[in-house]
Amino acid sequence: MIVFYPRCGLANRMRVIDSAINLCSQFEKPYRIYWLKDSELNCNFSSIWKPISGLRDTNIPLLPLFFKLRRRSKIFRFLLSCLDMWHILKVFNEMEYEEWLQLIQMPKNFQAYRHIFVSSFSAFYPSSVFRTNLFCLQPTLFSKVEDETMVFDDNTIGIHIRRTDNILSIKQSPLSLFEERMNKDLNANPNTKFYVASDDSDVKHYLKNCFKDKVILSNGILERNTEAGTLQAVVELYALSRTSKILGSYYSSFSVIASHLGSISMETIQVEN
To answer: How far apart are CA 86 and CA 141, in angstroms?
Structure first.
């Protein structure tokens, strides 16, 4: 049995789930995925998508407590090392990616463990095609996406600008570069319109003031620490996936997952190194 604990934001968790099911399908291993409703993402999986076999919502932070004890308790780490030595339990987090890759490249050793715990916010076993079929929206959210994208046409480009706590994205994908690229696309095709998704409402309104009716905005408020804010982020994610292409932010899984969902191209807007 492999137990997975997807962490951090919406798109991060989606790619962990994709990797988990890829891995367990490949090695025919039973699994459980625990979706924790917490301060990082205050919304249940079942409030967003239809059920997935093996995935359960939880409000009890047992796995976070487990990994916290692992970090802080020498006695607990000693017990885990014994369980590891006896092939009873193997534990990984995202900081042990290289060790994880080594293990899954040796199937006999991998299969020898009775239980494996994996905590991650990134893809650790992606396939060539993202499993979009895993993420079927609940009917209410699907209807909201339909309403959000009603005005889209073949000339609608998705813009995703990541801000708030993502320092790398702010530094590497400044707003000025998005403005330059939007002007360039408009010069090439005056019929172009932009659907702007961002976790910063000031950015949205600034671009709306600059580009007027060429910018399409969502009316919802994005707050990851509220269920309503998370559901709005889902709507924007799927709306982005219905554009003709995405101009995305550096170091943001949100842009990448949106492109996977829509099977469309994604270009990262970033400063030249």
So the answer is: 47
Question: 126 in a domain, yes or no?
Answer: no
pLDDT at 224 over 70: no
Q: What is the pLDDT of residues 233-253, one digit of tens each?
A: 999 999 999 999 999 999 889
Q: Domain ends where: 120, 154, 170?
A: 120
Q: What is the pTM of this model?
A: 0.92
Provide the domain limits for residue 32.
2-120
- What is the average pLDDT across 134-154? 96
Q: Which of 117, 150, 170 is nearest to 5 (CA)?
A: 117
Of 93, 120, 147, the residue at which a domain comes to its end is 120
Distance of CA 233 to the CA centre of its chain: 11
Q: Give the C-alpha separation, 38 to 58, whole Å.
A: 9
Together in a domain, 113 and 148? no
